[in-house]
Amino acid sequence: MGYWNETCALTDLPIVSGEKICAVIIEHMRQDATSCYPSENWCPIGPAIWGTYNGYGSIEDVLNGKELKKQMHRVMEDTHSTFINQDMTPYRVPGMDELTSALREVEISCLREGSIHRLQVVVADEAHCAYQEYLRSSDS
């Protein structure tokens, strides 16, 4: 597909290859056009993924990749969901970096209760994510 800079979901600033990032998988929740709030349309699923942007749309050097994979499997089991390929066959998650790459290519979706939900990955610069976490923790 080529080499490109990603855009930070928090600041709209460019994220370049080799930069530390935080990624979150989000799921399209509503199938109709009656909502008026963004949180009604998209919902984060699973844990945040910390790693390095590779310049090709995916994450390398994922921190705690094996533990994240276990957590993601638990989330999918708890919500009775399955990752599926475009041909509706189950998608087995080899690792979190492969999962984020497949999501970037729109190769997989989420099947829950008979309906297909689109998945996307949003990324943000690690420093901005850490600052947002700090602000959230200081509020409580």
Kindly list the characteristics that best describe this protein.
140 residues; alpha+beta; two-stranded antiparallel sheet
Task: Describe this entry's structure for a reader.
By secondary structure, this protein is of the alpha+beta class. The chain is built from four helices and eight strands; from the N terminus they run βββαββαβαββα. β1 and β2 form a beta hairpin. It is 29% helix and 34% strand. The strands form two sheets. The chain has a six-stranded antiparallel sheet with strand order 5-4-3-8-7-6. A two-stranded antiparallel sheet has the order 1-2.
Mean pLDDT: 81
Number of helices: 4
Question: How large, in whole angstroms, is the Cα Rg?
Answer: 15 Å
Taking pLDDT < 50 over at least 5 consecutive residues as the criterion, the unreliable ranges are none
Note the main sheet. Answer: 6 strands, antiparallel
- End-to-end Cα distance: 43 Å
Helix content: 25-40%
Q: Structural class given helices, strands, pairing?
A: alpha+beta
Annotation, overall tally of beta strands: 8
Strand content: 25-35%
Q: Could you say which overall geometry the principal axes of the C-alpha atoms support?
A: globular
Please give the order of strands in the largest beta sheet. Answer: 5-4-3-8-7-6
Q: What is the chain-wise order of helices and strands?
A: EEEHEEHEHEEH
